[in-house]
Amino acid sequence: xxxxxxxxxxxxxxxxxxxxxxxxxxxxxHQFALxxxxxxxxxxxxxxxxxxxxxxxxxxxxxxxxxxxxxxxSVGVSAVTGAGMDEFFAAVxxxxxxxxxxxxxxxxxxxxxxERLEEERKKAEMEKLRKDLExxxxxxxxxxxxxxxxxxxxxxxxxxxxxxxxxxxxNEEDDDEY
Length: 178
Fold this sequence. Notes:
Layout lengths: L1 H13 L4 E4 L8 H8 L1 H7 L6 H18 L2 E4 L8 H52 L17 H24 L1
Parallel strand pairs: 1-2
Helix pairs in contact: 2-3
């Protein structure tokens, strides 16, 4: 069940065709899983006696997954015997066709929308820059220099900073002598 929930989330997140492949069908057939996917009551009967947290979760999500399963392609394969390989490749081909017909169109629409939104953002930023340049008339603007004392100009602040720097250097030289 957790694998199917994971597959469901991948399907809805990526919006891509999903092919469900049951492997090792030479060891254990996959018909029971297909029956569970197609018949809600058969699945409920199978987990009826299980009282674990995962079975409770499975019961509650069963109706959602029932709809999810209806749109899935599924095949069973065996690498040892080669069983199901023809069906597998046919399902891959059908998924590729579905991608080209449906999903690719959707992907191109989403890509175009993203590019349009990015262009709008760039235009808005350029308009904001143009307005800022008009307001300042090309003069130098300090964006953030910390709190200023009233009446201080930028040059006075720079001079104070230079004086502090010279005093700090002298103090360091004094410390080195000891």
